[in-house]
């Protein structure tokens, strides 16, 4: 699944029944979504320092999923994040030229 498809799936869970959807449960509780993101980030750091590639891949997927859910809980979309990244790419190009 692409990150775009994952973000669309998460957005479609807004207002869904929290009893049948983990995503809906987190979207209904933004602080819990933030807490889960923090836990997953720490788990990814631990696997990275252990050098376990398979476990890091799994934890990285958890991090991406929970990051998108946390952002969606605050109405921050993948488009918003991509726009921010695009603006940085432009800024960094300017900085690079200025440093030449
Ligand atoms: N990518 C995910 C995803 N990754 C993790 N999780 C859930 O997040 C919860 C917490 O994950 P953890 O790994 O922390 O689980 P844990 O029990 O703490 O296990 P450990 O890692 O600590 O050992 C679990 O219930 C996982 O099932 C996810 N739940 C949903 N998705 C995606 O979201 C879609 C919609 O899901 P629902 O909202 O559940 O329909 C799914 O089809 C998936 O594509």
Automatic annotation (TrEMBL):
Q: Which reaction does it catalyse?
A: 1-(5-phospho-beta-D-ribosyl)-ATP + H2O = 1-(5-phospho-beta-D-ribosyl)-5'-AMP + diphosphate + H(+)
Coiled coil segments of this chain = none
Enzyme class, first EC level, given as a word: hydrolase
Keywords linked to the UniProt accession: Amino-acid biosynthesis, ATP-binding, Histidine biosynthesis, Hydrolase, Nucleotide-binding
Keyword Amino-acid biosynthesis listed? The answer is yes
Please name the pathway: Amino-acid biosynthesis; L-histidine biosynthesis; L-histidine from 5-phospho-alpha-D-ribose 1-diphosphate: step 2/9
Tell me, which GO biological process terms does this entry list? Answer: L-histidine biosynthetic process
What are the recorded GO MF terms, alphabetically?
ATP binding; phosphoribosyl-ATP diphosphatase activity
Is-annotated flag, keyword S-adenosyl-L-methionine? no
Known EC number = 3.6.1.31
| Family in the record | Belongs to the PRA-PH family.
Full protein name: Phosphoribosyl-ATP pyrophosphatase
Species = Octadecabacter antarcticus 307
Taxonomic lineage per UniProt? Bacteria, Pseudomonadati, Pseudomonadota, Alphaproteobacteria, Rhodobacterales
